[in-house]
């Protein structure tokens, strides 16, 4: 087996296991068993588990980010609405399926796991490698939501990411329920389009709820 084939096998095995089990609960031994390679191969190609995690995400980001940049620049050429900006993420997301039929789902789930499992190195990696695209995203949302502070936008965008992660990770179940209960055929991509107005409504909300207004200490103290 060539070195390149070994590297690809490790990446594909890691992608599958990270998406299914999470980063923290997947060992290098499990990855090597799934890829049918020895542990020395992981150390040779990646050096560490953190580097392997970044390499798995890099495979997606190298496809996703350039396509996203093009879509966002199209939106930037007009007066953008929140829905326009959100819709711009859909073609790049599903372009990832050229890597595998579940790749868009795996990518979204792993981005979510990067937060839920506190993988700070992933955020630093993405910010460092794709700073220009991230700045364009924030500039577009600031233009579309001029009355929303950066602090409030931080919360709303992360809540929006949570909604997308749920939709992508649960798309199979949602498709089955829609068919069983309503005789409605819904592809994963159609479901993502369907959630855009819902997320946009939250981002556009004029209600600003201070995050420290009802802290855990205050609630606990009132019981």
From TrEMBL:
Pfam families found in the cross-reference section = TetR_C_30, TetR_N
Tell me the ranges covered by the HTH tetR-type domain, including all copies: 4-64
Q: What InterPro entries does its record include? A: DNA-bd_HTH_TetR-type_CS, Homeodomain-like_sf, HTH-type_TetR-like_transc_reg, HTH_TetR, PsrA_TetR_C, Tet_transcr_reg_TetR-rel_C_sf
- Record keywords: DNA-binding
Q: Where on the tree of life does the source sit, at the highest rank?
A: Bacteria
DNA-binding region, residue range(s): 27-46
Molecular-function GO term, any one = transcription cis-regulatory region binding
Alphabetical list of PROSITE patterns matching this protein:
HTH_TETR_1, HTH_TETR_2
PANTHER family xrefs: HTH-TYPE TRANSCRIPTIONAL REGULATOR RUTR, TRANSCRIPTIONAL REGULATORY PROTEIN
Task: From the Swiss-Prot or TrEMBL record, give the protein name.
Answer: TetR family transcriptional regulator
Species per Swiss-Prot/TrEMBL record: Catenovulum agarivorans DS-2
């Amino acid at each position: 087996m060539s070195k390149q084939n070994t590297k690809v096998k490790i990446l594909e095995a890691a992608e599958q296991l990270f998406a299914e089990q999470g980063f923290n609960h997947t060992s290098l031994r499990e990855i090597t068993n799934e890829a049918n390679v020895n542990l020395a191969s992981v150390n040779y190609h990646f050096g560490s588990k953190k580097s392997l995690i970044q390499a798995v995400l890099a495979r997606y980001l190298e496809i996703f980010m350039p396509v996203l940049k093009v879509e966002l620049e199209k939106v930037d050429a007009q007066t953008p609405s929140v829905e326009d900006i959100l819709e711009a993420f859909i073609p790049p997301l599903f372009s990832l399926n050229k890597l595998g039929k579940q790749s868009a789902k795996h990518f979204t789930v792993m981005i979510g796991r990067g937060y839920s499992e506190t993988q700070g190195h992933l955020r630093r990696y993405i910010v460092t490698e794709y700073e220009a695209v991230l700045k364009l995203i924030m500039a577009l949302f600031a233009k579309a939501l001029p009355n929303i502070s950066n602090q409030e936008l931080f919360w709303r965008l992360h809540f929006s990411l949570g909604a997308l992660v749920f939709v992508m990770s649960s798309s199979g179940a949602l498709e089955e329920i829609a068919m069983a209960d309503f005789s409605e055929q819904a592809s994963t991509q159609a479901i993502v389009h369907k959630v855009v107005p819902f997320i946009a409504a939250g981002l556009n909300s004029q209600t600003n709820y201070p995050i420290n207004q009802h802290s855990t200490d205050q609630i606990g103290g009132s019981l």
